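Q: Could you fold this chain for me?
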Amino acid sequence: LYAYPGGKVEPGETLAQAAARELKEETGLQAKDYRPLRDIHIDGRAEHHAVDYLLTVFGAAYVGGEPAASDDAETAAFYTLAEMAAMPLAGDVFEVAEELLGPAQAAER
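A: Sure. Below is the predicted structure, expressed as C-alpha cells.
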C-alpha cells in the first residue's frame, strides 16, 4: 500500500520538526511552512495493538530534493490525484491528498 512518510517524535522535537525530519529521511525531500491538517486516532484494539496512536498529518510547501525511497519504502514519487485514485492507498491517504492538492489541481485545469 502507498502511504505518507511518518514516524515518532524524538525527544526535544516539536511535531513540525519531526514531520520535517521524517520527510527528509524517508523521501529525500525538503519542505517549509509546515502546518497541521488533521489528527487521526487509531484505536489500538481494532488493530490488535496494546496502545492507541494519534497521528498528526502535516501539509507543507515543497522546497527541493528529488524523491528517493528510503529503506522502508519501495518507491517515492510525485503523483496527481487522478493517478492516486487508481493506486492501493493506506487509510486516509487519498482524502488528505485531495484536501491538499484539490484546490491547486482544480486551478490548473
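A (continued): The mean pLDDT is 87.
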